[in-house]
Specification:
Structural class: mainly beta
Order of helices and strands: EEEHEEEEEEEE
Largest sheet: 7 strands, mixed
Oligomer: single chain
Helix content: under 10%
Radius of gyration: 13 Å
Strand content: over 45%
Number of strands: 11
Length: about 120
């Protein structure tokens, strides 16, 4: 079993920056690919970014160019650096991993972008 705990969500003004963190209960070397997802009110959960154990990142959605995913395997931590935040980035952000065929999710952290 894996426990993931996100932190760092906050209210931030448009154009601002924020860094989210995710602490994992297991060694990051065991977890493989990890990712950040988000879910805005009334919308489906969407993938924001993924990163492999070796640090290869992928940004399939609207975060490309503004967000940066990273991981510190020695600290069992995953990060999401967000810049140039927009109102449409407002959502609950979740970290996620798949371990031995089972998806694990954190409880989420709220990011609100508003003036």
């Amino acid at each position: 079993q894996v426990q993931l705990v996100e932190s760092g969500g906050d209210l931030v003004q448009p154009g601002g920056s924020l860094t989210l963190s995710c602490a994992a209960s297991n060694s990051m070397w065991e977890l493989g690919i990890m990712g950040w997802y988000r879910q805005a009110p009334g919308k489906q959960r969407e993938l924001v970014a993924t990163i492999t154990t070796g640090g290869n990142a992928n940004y399939p959605g609207p975060a490309k160019g503004r967000f940066s995913i990273s991981r510190d395997n020695s600290k069992n931590a995953l990060y999401l650096q967000m810049t140039s935040l927009k109102a449409e980035d407002t959502a609950v952000y979740y970290c996620m991993t798949n371990y031995r065929g089972i998806d694990y999710w954190g409880q989420g952290t709220q990011v609100t972008v508003s003036s």
